[in-house]
Amino acid sequence: MSGLARSPQEALILGMAVLGLLALVAAGLLRWLRAGRVWTDLLVPASFLVAYWLAYNKVPSFPPVGAVNKIFFVAVIGTALGVLVEAAGRGGLGRALVLAQPIASAAYIGTARLPDALLEVAAAALWGLLVMYGLSRGTGQSEDESGTRRATLLGIACAGFAPIALLGASSSSFQLSLLFAAAIAAIVAANISNPNFGFRSASLLGGAGGMIAAAQTVTLITRKTDMLALAVLTLVFVTPFVVDPILRRVRATNKVVQLAAFVGMCLLSVGASVATVIARYGSSFPV
C-alpha cells in the first residue's frame, strides 16, 4: 500500500479501505451462499491475519523471534483451535479455552521479562481475561444478534485502543488496530440480521485473542502504555451487562434501537478513553 500512497497516513487510509472492501465482499459472498456459522466464524480471525500482514508487511517465520512475531501465531493457533472445537461440538472446551488463552498469551508474549516482571505479566493476563470474559459473556438473546454485537464491541474497542498503542510507541499496533476495526465494521454491515453469522470460538480465539496479544505486547514490551486510558477503555467490555437491563426496563424491542443503544454506550467508554489521552498529553501526543 505504501507504494501507492504519498504519506503513511494515506497508506493507512488506503489499507483500511481495501481491507474493509475485501471483508465486505467475503462476508457478502458467504451470506449469499448461506454458509453456516462455522464458515462465517472465520471472517473475523482471517481479517485479523490480513490486517497483521498489512501492518507489519510480513508473515513471520516459525518459530517466531520477538513478541511482535508471536502475535501472528497466537492468532493462527487460536483460529485452528476454535475451528476444531466448533467442528467437534465441544462448547464447554471452547469456553475454557477462551478464558485460558489471554493468560497463556501474556506468559508467551512476556517470556523475555520473566521472572523479573512477574507482576506485570500477571496483570496483563488478568486484564486479558477480563476483556475476554466481557466479550464472550455479554451478548444478546439470539445467536445472530449476539454475534453482531460481539463483533461490534470488538471493532469499537480496537478503534479505541489505536491512540493508546500510538502513545505506547507502537505505530504498527496503531495501524493494526485501525485496519482490524475497519474490517470488522464491514463484516458487521454485511451480517446485520444474518441468522447464519457466527462469532464463536474461532472469532474469539483467533480475532479477539490476536488483538489481546497485540495489546499485551504494547503493555509488556514497549512499557509506555497509558494505564489510565487503557483502564477507561476496558470499561467498554462492561457495556453488554449495563445495556441489556436498561433496554428491558424501557421495553425497547426494536433491533435497530437496541443496536444503536449498544453502540452509543460503547462509544462513551471509547470517547472517555480518548479524552483521557488528550487531557494528559495534549499537544505532545504523537501524530
UniProtKB/TrEMBL annotation:
* Disulfide bond in keyword set: no
Query: Keywords of this protein's UniProt record, alphabetized?
Result: Membrane, Transmembrane, Transmembrane helix
**Membrane-spanning segments:** 12-33, 38-55, 67-85, 117-135, 147-168, 174-192, 227-247, 259-281
Establish whether keyword Acyltransferase is in the entry. Answer: no
What name is this protein filed under? Uncharacterized protein
